[in-house]
Amino acid sequence: MTSGVKDGVEKNPTFAAFIERAGHEYAAHSATPKEYDSFVEQIGRMWAEQPNWSDAELKAIDTPILVAEGDHDEAIKREHTEYIAATIPHAGLLILPDTSHFAFLQDPRQFNFAILHFLGDE
Predict the structure, then answer these.
(1) Quick check: helix, strand or coil at residue 113?
(2) CB neighbours (10 Å) of residue 95?
(3) pLDDT, tens digit, 9 for 90 and up, residues 49-95
């Protein structure tokens, strides 16, 4: 189900700043440094169409899952995140405080601790 993306996310200043930052990093580190615009176009099409899982497919997931979101995520609707966590059997839900869609950059200590704790390393 692709309905979880907030309308106009591409116009959000935080999201737009990340896309610009990612472009600089792509140019610096990619084997195809001049292809970022093509990459963004392709990933944009993917985001519009995928993932498109049914409830039955979500309910069939039989592996530990942690669904995480920042408490002021500018890209994903909170109700969507909560729905995904509630539909996948035994999934955990983590709302990271004082972060957005980019919690891994905004608070890497908190983000990494949460992931490592989920994986059993903390």
Answers:
(1) helix
(2) 17
(3) 888 899 999 999 999 999 999 999 999 999 999 999 999 999 999 99
**Tokens encoding 52:** 């498109």
In the chain, which residue ranges form alpha helices assigned H by DSSP? 13-29, 36-49, 55-59, 78-87, 103-106, 108-119
Burial bucket for residue 62 (CB in 10 Å: 0-12, 13-18, 19+): exposed
From the list 48, 51, 49, 30, the residue with the least C-alpha distance to 39 is 30
The kind and range of the H/E element at 68 are strand 66-70
Q: Partners of 67 in the beta sheet?
A: 93
Answer yes or no: is pLDDT of 1 > 70: no
Contact 109, 97 (CB under 8 A): no
Which residue's entry shows tokens 């990933």?
A: 43
Q: What are the Cα distances from residue 14, in Å, to 10, 48, 74, 112?
A: 9, 20, 8, 21
Model confidence pLDDT, tens digit, residues 20-35:
999 999 999 999 999 9
